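Sharing a chain and its predicted structure for anyone who wants a worked example. Both blocks are below, sequence first, tokens second.
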Amino acid sequence: MNIKVLEAVVPGEAPARLDVFLAGQFPEFSRSRIQQLIHAGLVSVEGQPAEKSGQTVLAGQQIRMEIPPPVMSALMGEKIELQVIFEDENVLVIDKPAGMVVHPSYGHGSGTLVNAVLGREGELPQINGEFRPGIVHRLDKETSGLILIAKNDRSLQFLQDQFKSRQVEKIYQTLVDGCPPTPLGRVEAHIGRDPKNRKKMAVTDPASGREAITEYRTLESFKRHTYLEIHPLTGRTHQIRVHMKFLGCPVTGDTVYGYKNPTIILHRHFLHAARLKIRLPGEDAPRVFFTPLPVELQRTLDELR
């Protein structure tokens, strides 16, 4: 594959930052990708290599940007069946099963969601010049449900910006041991690393943690358990599980933040990302995606009833 060359002339308007100008001229590239190209010496202004992303460009100046062909990621594709809820040229919406890790890491070098996406037939997603999917947000290994995958730089930036500005509505369904203090409530408690176990998270003081907000409402009550709908307004690591423990009603089956001996025999914790409302690239109105409880969780509810 040959290097792709894109050229543009700065119009007769007010001076602009180089990276901002190029992002407006070539919307298929995210601003971070353009900055990467500038730092790599692949962008020139009037025939001279650009000095920095924030340099000023003036009316009439000729800008040239070279796009190298995408390279293969070190990540390996694997033939793993995925339940695709929605797909277009920009995004994939996947119903992730419990037990699947999202991204390869130490101890999880294969069998991940990323490996599965790379192993699908068709055009490979490209992020920052590599053939790899863009992880917009994450779910814990044992949490099932909806997760977004971006296929290109621009889509990744567009979707992540909505998460950062809290424009995304995420709804989870969970069964907890015991019951929360009120049927309907809101938890505002900072979350940070557990000082006693750095592999875990915990409710902390504001100085050592990050703001975390979780809303909940009761869907159904049982003798020793409560079925809840959860609406996290922030996206901290293990947020729902930590906040439920903080309320004194840990997620059923969660042996990390809950009881070591589960109150119900489950091979996972009872937490499912059921609903996602978000605006997709190129669309004006948000879309709503939904996936029902997996069979094993629905069976657990039916047995409690």
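Comments welcome. The first helix runs from residue 18 to 25.
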